[in-house]
Design a protein that fits this description.
The complex is a heterodimer of chains A (179) and B (172).
Chain A lengths: L6 H5 L3 H20 L8 H21 L8 H20 L11 H4 L18 H12 L4 H8 L3 H27 L1
Helix pairs in contact in A: 2-3, 2-4, 3-4, 6-8, 7-8
Chain B lengths: L3 H18 L11 H8 L5 H13 L4 H12 L7 H8 L21 H34 L6 H6 L4 H7 L5
Chain lengths: 179, 172
Amino acid sequence: MAQDIDLAALGRGDKAAWDAFVRRYAGLVVSAVRGVSRDGTDVEDLVQEVFVRLCKDAFRLLKTYDPARAGLSTWLTIVARSTARDTLRRRQLPMTPLDAVPERLLASGGAPPEKLRLPDGLLSPRQKLVLSMLYDRDMEVADVAQTLGVDPQTVRSTHHKAMLKLRAHFAAEEQEVKK
Amino acid sequence: MAGPRDRTDEAALWRRWCSASASVDVTGAEPDALLLAAYAEDRLPEQAAEALENWLAAHSEIVPDVLAARCAALAESPAASPTVVARAAALVAAGGAQVLPFRRPTSRMASWRTAALWSGMAASLVVTSLIGFTLGNSAYLSLAGGASPAFGQELFDPPTGLFNSLDEEPST
């Protein structure tokens, strides 16, 4: 927790406060970054990137932290993972020479994609998130429940209701097409 | 939850929904880290949490961050290596560091000693010049092949013969 860290002194750039902060949270940052780095290499550099981001521009990012809104460990984990992901993305940006791109892909124009009419609020945000975690991320029900801070049974129920809605929606759509 | 075959069907249903809703603008601005952290700690009001879940459903790559943040708040993190700590700590310099001006060197020597020093330096310059002059003069005389009585006079009073010959009228 952040009780032992003097955030005001940190924001002023106090060396002792920064050292205490680094000693206290370096392990947490390492853990967070390890979860993003696929092969586990460059963890030290990614950790350094996180701390650089925290203290650059006169601790601008660190000053945005508000202990009334979230715990420092939670916030720092989000920041560390986000920074590590951005850094890795920058490093792995694919560079395709313009000559290698087929001309048809470079051509602009054509009709814009037709916008489909979807009923507003067919799925609630929670239902969409549950389905996304289950099917886009292939997460287990227990992990989804932990992410949302709910029971696994609640996740199953949310998933079931969402599927009922989707089935009903697409069944009605197909019937309209047949007519 | 459903069986494997049902799960495949349900996944296909979800993909169909996603492709249908892809053209609908459901994405907003990316939430900041504090908002995500507040969500991970169940501190957001219902409306804000719904909006965030709507965004997360469209950006599922961020979902593991929320899970990791929840775990971080509960678990004790391991200690980092001394190298990592040292590198990060070195990012901030000591706050108490001040730029100290150079102190002017105070002269402890007496004024007569300073005067003697400067006089000695001037004298040595004069002596060196004289020696240089004498040596150069001797070298010139030896190269000229004998003593030239008019050397001193030539040095300090150069002959004006050249100019005199120019001034003279050409003899016919």
